[in-house]
Amino acid sequence: MHPPPAPGTFRVAAIQYASEFGAVQANCDGLERLVREAARNGAQVIVMPEAAIPGYLSADLQTAWRDPVRRPNPKDGRSLEGIAETADGPSARRFRALAKELNVYMVATLIERAETQAPPSVNYFNTALLIGPDGAVACHYRKLHPWARGEATWAQKGDRGLGTCETSFGRLGLMICYDISCGTVEQLKDAGVKTILYPIGWVCPSANDWFDGMLPEKVRDWGVNLVGANWSVRAVPQGKDAWAGWGHSRIIAADGAVLARPKRDLGDAVLYADFPIEKN
What we know:
- By secondary structure, this protein is an alpha/beta fold.
- It has helices at about 25-40, 90-100, 150, 185-190, 205-220, and strands at about 10-15, 45, 65, 80, 105-115, 120-130, 135-140, 165, 170-175, 195-200, 225-230, 250, 260, 270-275.
- Helix 1 (about 25-40) packs parallel to helix 2 (about 90-100).
- It is globular.
- Helix content is about 20%, strand content about 30%.
- It has 5 helices and 14 strands.
- It has one domain (about 10-275): Nitrilase/N-carbamoyl-D-aminoacid amidohydrolase, CATH 3.60.110.10.
- The mean pLDDT is about 95.
């Protein structure tokens, strides 16, 4: 057990989790276990990886999701039918209740199914919900910059603008994975955000160069705290001899110091760090 955070600080936790592709119920169970662990260790703000509830890609990177209407060819990926949920669907309600029970802020990540009436259609979004200690959704963010390689078969560009929220710990911001390469950090900083909650589904083979070199340098230049929760796998996929591991979750302070990293990149982990409370 960790000692409680010092006065004037708050504790963040980044959950590194190996989602099973399409196993929504099992993923929710595993994520809840890790969220409870984080709360027991004093975490007040808890972040899941990108699309952690349904899984972002298959572990071997060979299968992506697909929109069942716009991309009906089964060879084009796995259909989101029965997998994507609304922002007030069963998974969101489950984690809203959990955040309220544990009295924490939590970022829950899903593939969102959203219907429009005029004209009638269904869109899918890569979504992060920042849930407050009261169990209400404090910020509903849809990824502004889908990554073409992993999301071209299903994801629509986010239409809810920047994800920011004023909290008792200061102004928090949301972005998802590829957003970091598209000017989103600068926009969040201009909006007064001090700490960015960052679900990730990183698959680049040069992960060490990015997470241990370039990313801390960029965070230092930006001058914001970053809570990066990345996905992982439980074992190296068969035939992937050169696989270097996704993992690489990081909590990085505004001066570029890496405050927490997993002991190993395979499998699940919970990272912790304490940041000073900075209110605008």
